[in-house]
Amino acid sequence: MTIMGVHPDAVSFSLLGPVSASVGDERVTVTGRRQRVILSLLVLARGRMVPVATLVDAVWGERAPLSARARVALDVVALRKAFRAAGHSGTLIAGTRSGYRLCTERAGFDVREFDDLVAAADRAAARGEARRAGVLYGGALDLWSGPALEGVGGRLTETAAARLEARRRTVCEALLTVGRGLADDGFFDEAEQALRDALRAAEGAGATGPAAEAHLALGRLHLTLHRLGQARRHLRAAATLGEERAVGELAALAERGSGAKEALDLVPRQTVR
After folding, report:
1. Does some domain include residue 161?
2. pLDDT at 254
3. Which residues touch 9 (CB under 8 Å, ≥6 apart)?
4. CA 32 to centroid of chain Cα atoms
5. 89: exposed, middle or buried (Cβ count in 10 Å: 0-12, 13-18, 19+)
6. Cα 174 to chain center, whole Å?
7. What are the residue boundaries of the OmpR/PhoB-type domain, all occurrences included (predicted)?
8. Are residues 36 and 49 in the same domain?
9. pLDDT single digits (tens) 158-189
10. What is the pTM of this model?
11. Do residue 149 and residue 86 come from a single domain?
């Protein structure tokens, strides 16, 4: 039965975190590292043919056994069975003697959704629509649930994972830029949301530099809004992560003394008309 317009054979793939797949709401059981590697490369190819030799190299590298091609074929058979068990009735993995590909007509990919959101955010930023860009960049980063291709391993997939992680860091830095710009323009609520999203993404990616910059920007924003306690917390976090500018700003804040009032909220804000 089709529910709310979703085709019963609709498949979704996730690579921005642990590798997973589902048919509708039913999770596909993918067992073993070899199957995860093969599925990951097929998903990354987005419908293009992946040569058997590439799959063999990804699974075994230079230590491929003589039976490697046969084992890949058996793993593909097992993947097809797993998708059928989850409710997929069509042909999902097409194959020839030379390789395999995903039939992606009804497939959803978190990587593609990430790319689409980032492209839309880039366009919004180029048009000067900073608030919309912040929402779109934040939505793209929210798709991540862990390290890219988590639990797969292998040279080829690790290279692909590194590219995806580099993209995540780039988007995180773009969101930081948007957040700082919103703060400069007086859109304080939107700036705080963007900077918090960037901080969460940076911490999730283990990106110390962007995380320190996010803490510094949040500390400065809270100083602007006279939220001194929150400012100290973020500036200390930035200093702990090696952000030297935060050290000086903490010292300047300390010189203001304990008599400074908190949370005055008297700073003029931009409002959406």
Report:
1. yes
2. 78
3. 23, 87, 88, 89, 90, 106
4. 24
5. exposed
6. 13
7. 1-104
8. yes
9. 899 999 999 999 999 999 999 999 999 999 99
10. 0.83
11. no
